[in-house]
Amino acid sequence: MNRNHEKSSKSYPRMMPSVSTMQGEAQPPCQVTCPIHQDVRGYIVAVARGEFSEASKLIMETNPLPSVCGMICAHPCETKCRRGQVDEPLSIMALKRFVVEHADHGSPKLQGESEQGQKVAIIGSGPSGLTAAHDLAKMGHKVTVFEHENAPGGALRSGIPKYRLPREVLQRDLEAIIALGVEIKTNTELGKDLTIGGLKNQGYRAILISTGLPLSRGLRVPGIELDGVLLALPFLREVNLDRQKIQVGKRVIVIGGGNVAIDVARSALRLGAGRVHMVCLEAREEMPSFPWEIEAALEEGVQIYCSKGPKSILGKDGQVTGLECMRCTAVFDAEGRFNPSFDKGEVSVIDGDMVIIAIGQASDLSFLKDSAIKLNEGGQLLLDADTLATSEEGIFASGEVATGPGSAVEAMANGRKAALSIARYLTGRPLAVAPPAEIELGELSPQIIDKIKRLPKQQMPALAVPERVQNFVQVELGYDRASAVREARRCLSCGLGTEYIEEECSTCLTCVRICPYGVPIITASGSVDIRVDQCQACGICVNECPAKAVILKQYQDEEVIERITTAIANASRSGVRPLTVVFWCSFSAYATGDFAEFVRTKCPSNIGILTIPCVTKIGIIHLLKAFELGADKVFVVGCPEEYCPYKESTSWARRKVDRAKKILDDVGLGAERLEMFNLPNVDIEQEEVLFKITQPAKQTQPDPLNG
Predict the structure, then answer these.
(1) Sorting pLDDT into bands at 50, 70 and 90, what band is 324?
(2) pTM strictly above 0.85
(3) What is the average per-residue pLDDT within 126-149?
(4) 3 state SS for 84-99
């Protein structure tokens, strides 16, 4: 964005903005792709700096189910992560989980109802209903959620196995929503314990139907009536709600290739099945299940037979003995409709004593039989796609009952959309509102990709296979602090790089010459274009630009000088000399966690420490300002070149330190008052690092001008 400065009289060609900035502020692909538009970049940068509470705040601004999303989110953001163009995408979901588990979130605060607040009923406590409840409560409405099971959570509780989503994790999010003033009534079934008309009579001004897809679809094949044939969702409910111990067969066959089928197969293993087979119509690359779920199932020993369709369920004496299959030659017809075709001459048999059918889900709208709410020809709710309003005034629908099968985070986004429509309805505003336009940053250019450092992805620790298949204990163990920070530092901070001051640019081409990534270019008209969509936010050009025509969005001079002033003021209170200032790279191996706490608590009180996002962002002016404000000694503490996510970071920082040292010599203060060293990316004794700071500081004579 342009900064308003007095126009220069220079006649040089101007530095021009990239196309993306002409159109508005472009957003990183991760944020645009996220169904609930989380500030992914923001909270990952905060994790990289060790600012976990700040990361938590950013997550919770837009996510009512952060704990759940940290465990089972479909994370479409990762598929669009621009880091994936370089090596591998960031583990965004895992970083969210880390923040939820390690940050101090503070106590949930009860949300007061506004005077304009209205009574809203939400039917169903799955991800969509809970999101709508959360948002409406924050708007000041009185929200009651009705759930037919004996505990809230909907499919999050009844459909997702505990090895993926522990119940205490779900409970944490539920308690935060309840703290907003949301009331949840369980064991209450629509159509049996309450009706749409009854809710209206109780004064509910708006009603949201968010009942999901609770019914399993069956098969029409011979043998469906045999003992040992089960449907997926009832099976998962019995397992996940601990209603009774399920007795599985020794050889279980699961029909289906989606995520529910995977959950069934992996659960059957944990219940004691000796062998589990999955049979699906799709080829491996066409399976609707998430790839990471397929990999986990294979890792645990599930055998998957692709491109096969059930011909009949075989049995003897009324009991399942196997499944007869035909080869599936195509799942969809020429018009793209689901219409499987088979080679009936290619038949095979899989032995088994239990068959569980997981081929799809359906809604249960039987509670609407006496209602004025209209259904379409397929028996689904007739909805306005933009507002999610049904045919009856004041009645809305969201989640899978409205959209069909999808992920939890997609259901959450739909619940948020419904909440906004309900809020407009309750205040008499038009329901239809055009969504805000979003501009997505484009892909990195091949030339930029070639110059970005490759950094290894931090692998998620998990239980060993022999251990995990014995029980329903959570498989993925989560990042520790060091792994989370390392992973977050792989973030390219897309779009968070430079801004320019067009009027100040003298077209000296310094930025073009020094950028290690080749981001600034000379245009055909002879002007300079710093391509903000390609900028890696290293900060080198900012401090080297003689005209100060380039600034960093995330790190500006005023902020740095204010922090230097604060650090020196705090250290001065000790009354002890020499007064020392340490610029500590917040991306270094030791800037966060227990070690950082050790440094903060063990450092003498006359040493002021301030963290900065990479030593490349320190300018000579910052180093000299510390001395001007009273420092006797200044340290710059970075990390080795091979560890830093930026190119040439250490060498550029060293140049600035050397130039500042020369100035100190020239003015008679002495170059020895300024030192720079890097902490190795290996285990090192905490006391050793502290000694590297305190010992030289003790040997420094106070500046007589500051005395």
Answers:
(1) very high
(2) yes
(3) 96
(4) HHCCCCCCHHHHHHHH
